[in-house]
Design goal:
Number of domains: 2
Strand content: under 5%
CATH class of the largest domain: Mainly Alpha
Strand order of the largest sheet: 1-3-2
Order of helices and strands: HEHHEEHHHHHHHH
CATH architecture of the largest domain: Up-down Bundle
Number of strands: 3
Largest sheet: 3 strands, antiparallel
Radius of gyration: 19 Å
Distance between the termini: 36 Å
CATH superfamily of the largest domain: GntR ligand-binding domain-like
Length: about 250
């Protein structure tokens, strides 16, 4: 089998330079963002020297950051001081989707009864901010209130669980961006409103179903490009177990 070609950065994407003396966490964040947003081509081999030169990273924090990315499954170590950017596969996306659905459906059920008036005010604020950023076409700005909205709804399950959900969401975004799985803003707004309204009415089960529907809606869009004949059996089993009412969104 021919080895993948050396990695190259997406010409249309900005490449952040890492200042001298930055921490491992900062180097990790820059590289992780580049991988998740497709600036580093999935399946390509890239040398440590190339990454150090392109991102302006020191060798020691770079190696430590790559170890963290390897643990997360975003890079694979190969010979000759190189790493391979993880490929995008149907099996991987299915596992990510199963884990995300299962964890989030449980976490929101735990969280809804604990939400306070201040939490709901913050959630309404996130909705307003998302609307603003969408109107001005700032998709980067939109990510922060969107992440805060979803984190607030699952935070009651604890930092380890909510952190895992956030990581899985980032991995899902990698597939969504790559395969153009975009839902209209009107639909996304309505889905977020439905989740928030269910939570505000203290209906944890309905909130879980609305959240699962929101997640599930993009799954067929990704598979429509990645693997049009994919068998949704395992995903349907997951949905039936954690949010049966969301099953209709998987079609």
């Amino acid at each position: 089998m021919t080895s993948p070609a050396p990695a190259s950065l997406n010409a249309n994407a900005p490449t952040p330079k890492i200042r001298d003396g930055q921490s491992v966490a900062e180097v990790h964040d820059h590289l992780r963002t580049a991988i998740l947003h497709g600036e580093l081509e999935p399946g390509s081999n890239v040398s440590l020297a190339h990454l150090a030169d392109t991102f302006g990273a020191g060798r020691t924090p770079l190696r430590e950051a790559l170890r963290l990315l390897q643990r997360e499954g975003l890079v694979i170590a190969v010979a000759n001081r190189q790493v391979r950017i993880a490929t995008l596969t149907a099996a991987d996306f299915e596992e990510i989707s199963i884990a995300r659905l299962a964890l989030a459906a449980v976490a929101i059920r735990i969280t809804v009864p604990t939400l306070t008036s201040a939490d709901f005010a913050a959630l309404e604020g996130c909705m307003a901010q998302m609307e603003h950023y969408q109107k001005v076409g700032d998709q980067v700005g939109l990510r922060l209130p969107h992440r805060a909205f979803h984190h607030t709804l699952v935070a009651g399950a604890g930092p380890r669980v909510s952190g895992a959900i956030g990581e899985l969401t980032d991995h899902t975004e990698r597939y969504r961006l790559r395969f153009g799985a975009f839902v209209s803003w009107d639909d996304r707004r309505a889905e977020h409103r439905a989740i928030l309204d269910a939570a505000a009415s203290d209906d944890a089960d309905l909130a879980a179903e609305r959240l699962a529907e929101h997640y599930v809606r993009t799954i067929p869009l990704v598979f429509g490009v990645l693997d049009p004949d994919h068998d949704f059996g395992r995903l349907r089993t997951t949905i039936r177990a954690v949010a049966p009412g969301a099953g209709a969104a998987l079609h």
